[in-house]
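Demo today. Your pick:
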Amino acid sequence: MTCPGRRWCLKTCASVKEDLARHQATRKPVTGKLRAVSWQGWTEDEINDVFSGRKPLAATAGA
């Protein structure tokens, strides 16, 4: 069973330990995937594509 929200879980679980186990079972996989994506970093081409026309602060400091 997944928990739709922390309050609901705390009301329906027999203990905080059970609530934590349910919460981690449903949230940790999602959080782990997002964390893995964020650790991959960005290539220069991806940065230029997403932030086209912007320059790093170091490049604009002398302007």
Notes: The radius of gyration is 21 Å. The CA atoms of residues 35 and 45 lie 21 Å apart.
